[in-house]
């Protein structure tokens, strides 16, 4: 998904909403294509500005439609205690990036279905608005088959209703990672009570659809619909890649199922006592082991925080003998530096802190330091599991 060339437009309920540069290509295309379309529909002269105004309104309506769809996913995710780190609009639509996967089939289903429900409501609202303004003649206009009957503003509502209906149908195709594919995964998950099996099934189905999209896209491109064809083939290629990646990750998860942090960690870690002086920490730990950081434990063996080499070094030499390690800890030993030793190893795969620090303190239920687990150890366990 796009990362570079992305910039934030606004923030809604703490969620940064950004656009990728390719989104402007979409807006430009919509305005360009739609102004020609409205000129034909309304039968106005070449120099009339009205078609342009309608095309710009359509582009904004389209933007709002996609954004509301993604906000639908994000708000339901929030209700299921999953934060959305960002919403990005780009040439293939919108992406709501959730911080983690839902932990139940029900949550997965509700989050997946929320976007299409919003799109359905937008479609219904556009149709209702059109009928309210134009009465029953709106229906002929909405199909754009009797263009004489349609009035100016209503043409935009009719187009938005059509495009949202299209978005709805496309998103509900059972082609993981599209919404429909996620719904399939949620149902398979509920039926089998096995998240990984359900994911592999949905991802395989998604890969199948991806090939179909690519095939249709190529045929369309070769038979005249060049733009649509290329666009569909690219979507297929992207969905296929994403589905394959998901399937691979799920297979890996199946292989490391049953492995816990305690099975992989160093169960006899070297830890600095919180009462030690900075001098002692430097001489007996940092200079001896040459590690970038150490876990620090209190008298009862409870983990209280980390000490980085740089932090210890920055204490003026004259005070190193009198200051204790507990005064200069890095962090407070909270959840960002620790992992429970009985947690499944899988929970560490997406752990950002593990990547940043290179390791985490593994603690037992009482907060006592049980071990240290490093990125290297996790990597080795994964290699062993897949070998
Ligand atoms: Zn969606």
CA radius of gyration: 28 Å
Mean pLDDT: 86
Question: How many separate structural domains?
Answer: 3
Outline: elongated
| Sequence of strands across the biggest β-sheet | 1-2-3-4
Structural class, from secondary structure content?
alpha/beta
Number of strands: 10
Distance between the termini: 30 Å
SSE sequence, one letter per element? EEHHEEHHHHHHHEHEEHEHEEH
Tell me about the biggest sheet? 4 strands, mixed
Number of helix segments?
13
Q: Estimate the helix proportion, in percent.
A: 55-70%
Taking pLDDT < 50 over at least 5 consecutive residues as the criterion, the unreliable ranges are: none
Hetero compounds: zinc ion
* Portion in strands: 5-15%
